[in-house]
């Protein structure tokens, strides 16, 4: 893929799923890659696969919720490679549970990883991206950043917040005349470990929810997702939709506006939420 040769790209949550596929696709496209994750085993697999294809890779354990560590990490990556061009704020977790039965800590945890992780990564790397003269911030939201469904309030909140943050940043970079492009990614169902790694409110069986996700919702491979993301980055798209499901949902939301809220609950909650 053109446009990535010689670029330095940072991918969080690179030990599994979309992050792993992104790191490998970036490496194949000629980028130097800084990968990180809390899952050091998964990260080692990604590192080996990158080294096997001759990619210059820096691999570190990083928890995206640890702001001070993230700031130090950004400086270390810039020093290691001499510049940083792109950050893919991809690390994320999922949680299922109605608001009524979710604990504050469950909602806070999702916000910490899925929203504050993105803010930490963006703020830590922004000065380096600006000084590279050719930067790109790529923040991973979700289709659940476009519409809300029952049982996903924590995840919906974090992913809507990522969209707001990212869309504001894109406009700010343009207004300031900074050489930094900004894209927000909205995947539909991707065949990754996200649901298997997810937690759920008391009374719900995360194993059953994961089975339902894997069987009914996950339709796009992580490799295809990575390809679509890099194509969107190359075209400097503001919004990158992944999968036919994501494109279809976006059209429905545009057509129905807020009325989707009376349309979705029966259909979508049967698929993704607690059984009712
Ligand atoms: N799979 C889907 O259907 C789907 C749909 C929409 C959005 N997304 C988003 O895509 C992104 C990637 O998810 P995935 O589907 O590849 O899931 P995944 O579970 O396969 O990968 C997520 C990775 O993030 C890492 N991670 C979790 N918490 C972390 C933390 N605090 N610090 C650093 N790393 C952490 C995990 O260890 C894991 O390796 C997430 O932001 C997710 O919300 C996924």
What's the structural blueprint in terms of helices and strands?
Elements: E1 8-11, H1 17-28, E2 32-37, H2 40-52, E3 57-61, H3 67-81, E4 86-89, E5 95-96, H4 104-132, E6 135-140, H5 153-176, E7 180-187, E8 199-200, H6 206-217, H7 222-234, E9 239-242, H8 244-256, H9 260-272
Parallel strand pairs: 1-2, 1-4, 2-3, 4-6, 5-8, 6-7, 7-9
Helix pairs in contact: 1-2, 1-7, 3-4, 4-5
Bound molecules: nicotinamide-adenine-dinucleotide.
What would you say this structure looks like, in words?
It is globular, with a radius of gyration of 18 Å. The chain has helices at 17-28, 40-52, 67-81, 104-132, 153-176, 206-217, 222-234, 244-256, 260-272; strands at residues 8-11, 32-37, 57-61, 86-89, 95-96, 135-140, 180-187, 199-200, 239-242. The model has no long low-confidence stretch (mean pLDDT 95). The strands form two sheets. Strands 3-2-1-4-6-7-9 form a seven-stranded parallel beta sheet, sandwiched between helices. A two-stranded parallel ribbon has the order 5-8. It has one domain: Rossmann fold (3-Layer(aba) Sandwich). Helix content is 52%, strand content 15%. The protein has 276 residues and is of the alpha/beta class. Helix 1 (17-28) crosses helix 7 and helix 3 (67-81) packs parallel to helix 4. The structure holds nicotinamide-adenine-dinucleotide (NAD). Residues 12-13, 15-19, 37-39, 42, 62-65, 90-93, 113-114, 117, 140, 142, 187, 189-190, 192-194, 197, 218 line the site of nicotinamide-adenine-dinucleotide (NAD). The site of nicotinamide-adenine-dinucleotide has 32 residues, from helix 1 and helix 4. InterPro entries: KR_dom, NAD(P)-bd_dom_sf, Sc_DH/Rdtase_CS, SDR_fam. This is Acetoin dehydrogenase.
């Amino acid at each position: 893929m053109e446009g990535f040769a010689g670029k330095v790209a940072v991918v969080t949550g690179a030990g599994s799923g979309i992050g792993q596929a992104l790191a490998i696709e970036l490496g194949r496209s000629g980028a130097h890659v800084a990968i990180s994750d809390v899952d050091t085993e998964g990260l080692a697999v990604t590192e080996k696969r990158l080294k096997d294809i001759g990619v210059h890779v820096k691999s570190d354990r990083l928890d995206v919720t640890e702001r001070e560590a993230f700031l130090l990490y950004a400086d270390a990556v810039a020093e290691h490679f001499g510049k940083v061009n792109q950050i893919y704020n991809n690390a994320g977790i999922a949680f299922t549970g109605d608001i009524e039965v979710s604990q504050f800590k469950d909602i806070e945890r999702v916000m910490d990883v899925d929203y504050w992780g993105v803010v930490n990564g963006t703020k830590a790397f922004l000065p380096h991206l600006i000084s590279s003269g050719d930067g790109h911030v790529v923040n991973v939201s979700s289709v659940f950043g476009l519409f809300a469904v029952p049982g996903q309030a924590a995840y919906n909140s974090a992913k809507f917040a990522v969209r707001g943050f990212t869309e504001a940043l894109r406009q700010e970079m343009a207004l300031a005349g900074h050489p930094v492009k900004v894209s927000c990614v909205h995947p539909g169902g991707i065949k990754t470990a996200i649901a298997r790694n997810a937690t759920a409110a008391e009374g719900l069986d995360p194993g059953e929810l994961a089975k339902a996700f894997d069987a009914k919702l996950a339709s796009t491979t992580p490799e295809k997702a990575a390809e679509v993301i890099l194509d969107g980055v190359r075209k400097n798209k503001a919004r990158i939709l992944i999968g036919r499901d994501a494109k279809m949902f976006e059209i429905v939301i545009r057509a129905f506006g807020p009325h989707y809220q009376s349309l979705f609950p029966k259909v979508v909650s049967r698929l993704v939420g607690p059984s009712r």
